[in-house]
Each structure stands twice: as structure tokens, then as C-alpha cells.
Queue: 4 jobs
Job 1
Amino acid sequence: MSSPSPLFHTLAVIGPGLIGSSLLRRAQQNPAIAQRLIAIDQSADVLERVKSLGIADQVTTSLAEGVQEADIVVSCIPTGAVASVAQQALPHMKSGSILSDVASVRSTITQEIVPHLPSDITYVPVHPMAGTEYSGPDAGFSTLFEERWCLLIPPESTSSSAIERVETLWQLCGARTRRVEAHYHDQICAMVSHLPHLLAFTICDTADRLSTDLRADVLDYAASGFRDFTRIAGSDPVMWRDIFLANRDIILQTLERFQGETAKMAEAIRTGDRDAITERIERGRRIRLSLLENRQA
Ligand SMILES: NC(=O)c1ccc[n+]([C@@H]2O[C@H](COP(=O)([O-])OP(=O)(O)OC[C@H]3O[C@@H](n4cnc5c(N)ncnc54)[C@H](O)[C@@H]3O)[C@@H](O)[C@H]2O)c1
Ligand SMILES: O=C(O)C(=O)C[C@]1(C(=O)O)C=C[C@@H](O)C=C1
């Protein structure tokens, strides 16, 4: 008996880095996803690596060539480049195909892409809430999305059949899926992802600006607290610069909220208010424990 046809005939990934190569690896392992895999990147070195890893049937630096036969194009490039690359790709995509991307910020990017959408191509952006601090094709792995949320953020009036196909794609990658509205998505991510990265980069920068002797000792003796808190400070600078700028207003509001809470904790410490200090620690701890219960830690 022949196996059922895959979800897509041809899947093209623009930017086979951490996220893109993880998607390709998964698609290669799971024939239900696509029959043919294409990797597109501006870097010939990245494509050489993709070839050696054997995770695509075709590689190309040409956007036009890479997208023209694809039934779905998933752009996995830095947030700041997503809208302009989409605008360059769209005229070469075939009628009835789907454009998607995995950018970490939604409202601003979707607003830039939607006016350029031809009526016969559907845009279904997603955001897999999974990653690591590493980048590039060697950093990817096929189980990256397993048990993680993949948020779908389709613009209003997107056809439900296209949304369902994209949802199925990510479920075949092992993810749990949910549809959310773009502004709400950006508020959530400002809190759970963008603020933590901003703090991790800044705490490392603060240590770096200490006097020479103190800085050296701080880094020598950094134990698990500093280490756990700053793992994500190893992340890619371009990716995070782009995210901070694309979600500027919401990140600044979230940061202001955080500074307000920090000021209250500082006041409790200054005045020796033991109950207030304990209550604040307990609230934070409860949140951390709830992440474990929700399988998110
Ligand atoms: N890293 C994470 O944890 C994570 C998680 C979810 C979503 N994201 C989002 O996914 C996207 C990719 O992140 P990543 O960590 O996989 O990045 P990465 O640096 O590992 O890979 C990005 C790839 O895009 C290529 N690229 C850059 N500009 C390009 C262009 N103009 N045309 C073609 N190729 C181009 C690079 O050469 C590289 O191969 C970003 O938008 C990021 O915000 C990242
Ligand atoms: O685990 C990490 O290293 C990540 O940074 C992953 C992480 C996150 O902040 O949770 C990073 C950016 C994304 O858009 C989604 C996931």
C-alpha cells in the first residue's frame, strides 16, 4: 500500500540556521511533512554546511530560484530582514502557495508584509517558543520543537485551510500549537523572552564595567546563579538588536513595569521590611514552580 501524500510537496526554508535547520532536520526525518526540501541562504558557507549535513535536497543563494516551486516558504532569518526578504520573494512564489516566517516579533512585521501580499498567496506567520543561545546550521536539532508551543499569528481574514496546514506542519514537528493576536503575542514575548534577554545582556555588561580586579574575580567565581541567569546572554547580537527595535514600545513598557517592581524590592531591602521581601520572593518562586508544572522548564 502506498503511503499518503505529504502535507506539502515542496518546503523551502530561507535561513537554515538554528530554527531553519531544525525544521529541515525534522522534515527530513518525517516524510509526512514534505517530499522535497530546499534551503535558501545569503551565505554560501551556510549552504555548504547544509549540503554536508544532508538536510536539504537543493540549496541556493537565489531567492527567486529557491521559492518558485515551493508550496510553503518558511523564512527563518533575523527579524530585521524578514519583511524586505518577503517582499523580494513574493513576486517569485507560485499561485496558491503559503508564505510563513518564525520571527520573534509580530505586529510591526505583519504590517510591513500584508500590503505586498498578492491575492493568491497566503501569509501565515508563526513563532515557535523554542530555541537555544546558539546560531547557525550546526546548532539545529530535530527535536527542538518537541513539546514546545508554536504560536500562530495569522493576519485577520486569513483562510482557515492555510492556517490549518501550517498548524499541522508544526504539530508534525512535535509542537503544541495555539493561535494568538499579534499585539497580544508581542506583549507576552516582551515579558517571557525579550525582557529576560535584555536583563541577561545587561547584567553581563554591568559585570564587565566593574573595576579591573573586581571584574576578574567576579568572572572567576561566577557560580551557578550567575551562570544560570546569563546563559541566554550568549545569544546572537543581530537577532536581539532586531527584536529590541521591532518590539520597542512594548519592551519599554515592560521594562518600566519591571523597574517599578525592582524599585519596590529595593525599598523593602532599604527599610528592612522582612515581610515585603519574603512576600516578593515567594511570588517569584511560585511562578518558577508553576513553569515546572506546565512542562515549560
Ligand atoms: N534563536 C531562537 O531561540 C529563536 C526562537 C524562535 C524564533 N527565532 C527567530 O527565528 C529567526 C532565526 O533565528 P535563528 O536563531 O535560527 O538565526 P540563525 O542566525 O541561526 O540563522 C539565520 C540564518 O539566516 C541567514 N540570513 C540572514 N539574513 C538573510 C537574508 N537576508 N537572506 C537569506 N538568508 C539570510 C543567515 O545566513 C543564517 O544562516 C529570527 O527571526 C529569530 O528571531 C529564534
Ligand atoms: O532558550 C533560549 O535560549 C531562547 O532564547 C529561546 C527563546 C526564548 O527567549 O525563550 C528566544 C527567542 C524566541 O523568539 C523564542 C525562544
Job 2
Amino acid sequence: MSQLILASASPRRKELLEQVGYEFRIEPTDADETLPVNMTLEDGVIELAARKAKTLTPQPGEVILAADTLVTQGGLALGKPKNNDEAFEMLRRLSGTTHEVITGVALFHADGMERFYEKTIVSFNELDETLIARYIASKEPVDKAGAYGIQGLGAVLVKQITGDYNNVVGLPISLVYHKLKSYGIDPLIKED
Ligand SMILES: Cc1cn([C@H]2C[C@H](O)[C@@H](COP(=O)(O)OP(=O)(O)OP(=O)(O)O)O2)c(=O)[nH]c1=O
């Protein structure tokens, strides 16, 4: 049985792991989150997750989990907005259209690193400028890729999703569960 370490300051990732019953330690990371330019967005988001994981060194029997979530539309990557103007631009771009949310995940352990990603397709309602301004005033967009949080007030922006909802929130917990099982980490198995 391995020990799980979450390399993340994201409250969402912590909550998703707790929801499924994982026992883990949290080690927030401070990695460079600039997307590499010489690779696909899928590879780039995986690379960012790997960078976060590599800020820690796994001891034998430890698995370090790190992730990165990105919103993409038409080949353009939307990370966290730097200010309200950028949040406004992002939400205006997403209004009435469909985008993808990609979360890259890295599982770093003494024998190497496993990397994978999950993609969810999200369609937004038409958003008028008053709604966008009110949503930004709620401060919810600040620390979120694409300037929205589907799990919060941002739920009213969303028309439809195809794929894993939890992936949009920041961690594809179902896929992660199946991957972690191969390291002997399974909260559904209770030891006596
Ligand atoms: C699209 C979307 C993103 N997000 C969040 C998930 C991520 O926390 C954030 C994207 O930023 P990330 O850089 O992936 O994560 P983080 O900086 O919050 O945490 P850490 O790097 O320490 O692991 O956007 C939501 O919470 N809801 C949503 O609907």
C-alpha cells in the first residue's frame, strides 16, 4: 500500500480526493505554469502537471499526484485570468460557443512518472455583458482556468457538458481512481 501525496494548493482537488475517501498529505507546489509552446495543448497540460509533481521528491512507497487544468477553444489556451478585463474577454469568447477543458495529471513515484489527461466538452449559453459583469463582480473567476467555476455560480453559464464533470472542476477523479489502484492505493478497500 503506497502513501498518496497531493502536490496542489487547489481546494477543489483536495475535496475531490476526500469525496472518494483517499487518505493523503498535501504539499502545495510553486512551479512555473507557463505553457510550453513546442507541443500540443494536451502534451503541454501534462507537462505542467509533471512540473508541479517534480517540485517534490518521492520516497520509496510514495505517489505524488499533481494536475493542471486548462480551457481551450479553437487552439487557444485560456488559463487563469490575470485581471477582470482578461476575465471579461475570456467569458465573452466562451459565450454561446463550445470549448474543451483538459486536465493533465502526473503520478510521480520512485520508479518513474505516469502522465495522462482527460478532456470534457462544455457549451456555454449566450451571455450578455451585464451577466458577465455581474459574474466577474462575484470574484469567482479569479483563480480559475477560463474565468469560470462550473461548481459555483458559474453553473448558470453552462448549457451542456459531454464527459467527466469532475475533470472540469480540476481532477478527473474516476480516471485517477483507476490509475491509483495499480499502485495499491484504493480507498474502497478497507484494511482491518
Ligand atoms: C473550468 C474550471 C476550472 N476550475 C479551476 C480548477 C483549477 O484549480 C484551476 C486551474 O488552475 P490550475 O493551475 O490547474 O490549479 P491551481 O493553481 O488551482 O492549483 P495547483 O496548481 O496548486 O494544483 O481552475 C474550477 O474550479 N472550475 C471550473 O469550472
Job 3
Amino acid sequence: MSKLCLYGASGHGKVIKDIVLSTNKEVQCFFDDYCINKQFLGLSVFSSDEIKTFEKNEFIISIGDNSIRKIISKKLTVQFAKVIHKKAIVSKDVEIGKGTVVMAGAIINANVKIGKHCIINTNAVVEHDCFLEDFVHISPSATITGNVTINEGAHIGAAATIIPNIKIGKWATVGAGAVVLKDVPEFAIVVGNPARIIKYKEKENE
Ligand SMILES: CC(=O)SCCNC(=O)CCNC(=O)[C@H](O)C(C)(C)COP(=O)(O)OP(=O)(O)OC[C@H]1O[C@@H](n2cnc3c(N)ncnc32)[C@H](O)[C@@H]1OP(=O)(O)O
């Protein structure tokens, strides 16, 4: 199998490289139009106009920002892979879309569906019967309890907790440490325990 290419020479890219290595696969190179150095973690960094040479490789977009990941995924015409750290625990009864990464210590329980280009970060828990749409990010140590729906592009902050049966609207942000007891409207930013809306984001992602 050919080596993986990572789009985004970033901190997030460093962690994804480690995930790939944990599965005994290798990273071929990075792509990044904004990286001044042509080397990153000992690998070459190419610009996006050099992608054609690597069109047989599978890619991961290694950029943490959900909306930028969406924009780049629409521009690239490559095949995407999904990567799951060997120390993540993922039920056999889970669907995970291409481009999604699952980091070390994450636990994903039965009957969960996760879309494309999502991030399930270090030690995050996604409980049974949850549904996560594309471009969602579950940050480190967040707990998504049973039967929660998280719509496109939503970001759940580090160590946040979402109680069962809640719906998180598209492109919403749940602040670090928040405890979500009620549905969160699309584009809302909520913080605290219990979580409350502090503002709304621009609807730039539609
Ligand atoms: C591997 C990794 O690094 S993965 C990345 C994980 N990242 C995260 O978990 C970050 C999550 N982001 C946050 O928690 C951010 O603080 C956000 C998105 C909720 C808010 O950010 P901003 O829009 O910049 O809000 P801002 O910093 O201006 O704060 C607005 C108010 O909310 C409060 N606030 C902000 N975040 C939180 C929070 N997590 N919990 C409680 N209150 C908060 C601020 O104190 C401020 O209150 P004030 O108006 O009384 O002064």
C-alpha cells in the first residue's frame, strides 16, 4: 500500500503523523502552501500545485480548523484515507468516513456514525448511538454521551460534556469544559456549566 500524504504542515499534522506510524504505515510527505520551510519533521513539504505527482497516494487534511478542512476537501481531487490510532478503542459496529482521524486514547462505542474529515481527538469519548456529520471536531477529553447528534462542522471544546439525546447545530462551538444540557442552535457559541449561548458565529461556511 502506498504511503499517506498529509495536507497541512501543522501541530495537528505532527499528531496525525504519529497516528499513521502507530498503524505501521508511513507518511510520504506534507503539502502546505504557507509553510516557509521545505522540510517538516524530516519530510519534504510541497505546494498544492505539485499534488499531481502524488495522485496515487491517499491523503489526510491535517488542519485543525473545521471550515478550512472543508474548503480544502472541496478543492482537492485526491483519494482520502481514514486513520485510527492503534491505542484508540473503536467498536466494530462503527462507521467512520474517509478523511477522519481518531487519536490515541479515544473511545468510540457501538452504533456510532462519524462523517468525513472529522477529528476525534486524544482521549475523547463518543458513546453509543451518536451521529456526527462531516467536519466535526471532538477535542481532547470531551465526552459525548449516548444518542447525541452533532451536525456539520461543529467544534466540541476540550473536556466538554454533552448529556444524552442532545443535538448540536451545524458550525456551533461548545467551549472547553462546558456541560451541555440543552440543544445548541446552529452557529451558536456556548460556554459554562450549564452551557449558555454567548454569541453566534458568522454564517460563512454554508
Ligand atoms: C489538541 C488541541 O489543541 S484541540 C483544540 C481544543 N480547543 C478548545 O477546546 C478551545 C475551545 N474554545 C473555547 O473554549 C473558547 O474560549 C470559545 C470558542 C468558547 C470562545 O472563544 P472567543 O469567541 O474568543 O470568546 P472570548 O475569549 O472573547 O470569551 C467571551 C466570554 O466567554 C468566556 N469564556 C470563553 N471561553 C470559555 C469557556 N471555555 N468556559 C467558560 N467561559 C468562557 C470568557 O471568559 C468571556 O467572558 P467575559 O465576557 O465575561 O469576559
Job 4
Amino acid sequence: MDNKMQLAKDKLIVALDVDTIERAEALVKQLNGTVGMFKVGMQLFYSAGPDIVRRLKEQGVKVFLDLKLHDIPNTVGQAAKALAGLGADIINVHASGGSAMMRAAAEALQEGAGVLNIPAPKLISVTILTSIDQNTFSGEIGLPGDIKDKVRDWALLTKGAGLQGVVCSPREIEIIREACGQEFEIITPGIRPSWSVTGDQKRIMTPAEAIGLGASYLVVGRPITGAADPFDAAGRVLVEMTEGI
Ligand SMILES: O=C(O)c1cc(=O)[nH]c(=O)n1[C@@H]1O[C@H](COP(=O)(O)O)[C@@H](O)[C@H]1O
């Protein structure tokens, strides 16, 4: 396999947004070896329970546990401590919870993993959801300024709190790279190949564009998991990713 294809695979995270362990494991079986990591989000975690993470880890795959924790620092810290033992590779919190909340999560993950003598998951923050456009941001939510500037400010806050990266739209990759440097992880959902349906996503880009701008990882859900043949769709996404490398 050429280097570009291997790099594309390492950078592709597939969102297992399904209801059952059986459906999730069927997708993992179909896609394992084609993608670098699988994402367990609220839908699967709340339907299948925490064991889904342990089961996936037993199959030797990397897991991004996307529960987007957001509460007062003590509550988030205690929740993060409980999650630390599941063995996920990445966990996330909302940056809008502030730096005390993010630090509480980071410390709790270290503590929880330390007790079990396992590596702590990477901790990253979610900035402004990719389903939010400038109209919703300024109008409904009533936040001042440009989405890009807020995402950059929250990425800096995240870095300052000791976290390893952010989730954001690929449209903010450049501004975050400039502010936070090359080592900072930038994970981008809102990926839509030209042949896929946009749906509820607003700040989107193609796989080639996101990779070309320097995303650390791309998160892709429905364009792959909702396709008639997910293995074929993942292959097409990977080819597009290699075009941006
Ligand atoms: O944290 C996330 O993963 C996330 C943040 C964000 O801003 N936007 C976003 O779409 N996501 C997740 O990324 C996945 C995108 O899925 P698709 O829109 O189906 O490709 C979903 O599982 C979302 O929960």
C-alpha cells in the first residue's frame, strides 16, 4: 500500500452512529483495516451502554468516545474519572464549559487511568458544532463576532487548560494551526464528499480539502455508514483523502 493511502487510513475516524451493538460490530467488521479509529457517540453509548467501548477495544480497534461532557467542573471531573477505565483512546468535553471544567476533566482522566495503570485517553474539546452557521451563532445563540474567531479563542483556551486538541469544522483548521501550532490535534467532522447528502451539517468541506488544510483526523459518519455498501464508500472517501495529501 502506498504511503498516502496508509496516511489517509490512519486519519479516518468513522462515526458508529447506530443503535445496537450488533449493528456497530457489523460495521467494524466491514471497515476494520480500512479506517484508523471508530467513534462511539451518544446514540450508541446510551443505547448499548459503556460495555460497547470495552468490546471494541477487545477487538483491537482505536476508539474515540464522543460524549461531549459539559457541566460544572466537579460533575465533569467525576464523569471523566468513571470513563477513564473504559480504555478509549480519545474523550471529549465542550470548550464552552470553560478552562476550570476542562482542567478538572484532564486531571480526572489522569487520576482514573493512573489507578488502573492504563494510559490516559487524549482529551480534546468541542468548539462550535459543525451544524451551526453564522446566522444561528449570531442570531439565535446571540454570540458576538465571527465563528472562526470564537473557535480560535476556544482552541487557545483548550490548549491553555492542557488538553491535546479540538473538534471543529475544517473551515477553521488554518486559523487554529496558526494559533496553536503543529502538535495540536485538529479533528474535523462536517466532511461531505460531493456525492453525499449535506443533511444537518452546515460548515462542511470535502475530504480532500480538509486533509489539504492539515486536519489531524476526519470524522465521517452517514456518508459511509448510511451507504448501501459502507466498505465501498469508505474506499471512495480514502481515495479523495489521498488527493489532498
Ligand atoms: O464531536 C463530534 O464528533 C462532532 C462535533 C461537531 O461539531 N460536529 C459533528 O458532526 N460531530 C460528530 O461527528 C459525526 C458526523 O457525522 P456525519 O454528519 O454523519 O458525517 C457525528 O457523530 C457528530 O456527532
